[in-house]
Amino acid sequence: MLWLHRFDETIVIALLALLVAIVFLQVASRFVFKLPIEWSEEMARFIFIWFCWIGCSYATVRYHHIRITAHFRIMPRGLALWLLRLGDLAWIAFNLVVLWGGVLYLDSILQYPYRAMITDINMFWIFLPIPVTFLIFTLRIAYNLLDPAYFERSMSEAEREAGEEVELAQPGGGAR
Fold first, then answer.
1. How many angstroms separate the CA atoms of 117 and 99, rounded?
2. Contact between 45 and 116 (Cβ < 8 Å)
3. I need a surface site. Which of 3, 75, 81, 159 has the fewest CB within 10 A?
4. pTM passes above 0.70
């Protein structure tokens, strides 16, 4: 899976660079040359959609997604680990529902195609990241569930520090 991490990282960097270049080109052409580029705003929006979804996928495997876990530090480790895994299994179930809905939506776009107004891009390509990234989310969450350091990596740095302080403040000095 290391190749997928590098692939995501490369794609996110490339999309961000492309997004910045297009927005810079639009601003320069509009305010310096007084000739706006019609397609740049729509393309920037489409690239931003792809950037956000792939960035979310990348954050998932790095354990940087939004998750509140500080309370797990004060629970017995077995219970906390079980609840973390239960939450991730619920997340996988949600992802599969969105994935299926995304596939159905893409199928409807293929049956009844419509195109972007300015760039004339088939909207299939704009909505494609929904099922693709939710499939990748699901695979990444499953991969994380098999990680031996799952519990420790699930905690953010601030939550780790807060949890250590809580453990030290408990009677017995944090011994479990």
1. 26
2. no
3. 3
4. yes
User: Could you read off the pLDDT of 102-144 as tens digits, one per residue?
Assistant: 999 999 999 998 898 888 999 999 999 899 989 988 988 888 8
Residue 84's CB is within 10 A of a number of other CB atoms, namely 20
Inter-axis angle of helices 129-145 and 38-61, nearest 10: 20
Task: Give just the sign of the alpha carbon dihedral 129, 133, 134, 135.
Answer: positive
Residue 36: phi and psi, rounded to 5, are -65, 145
pLDDT band, very low/low/confident/very high, at 24 (cuts 50, 70, 90): very high
In 62-156, alpha helices (H): 77-111, 123-127, 129-145, 150-154
Structure tokens at 7: 């692939």
CA-based angle 50:51:52, to the nearest 5?
95
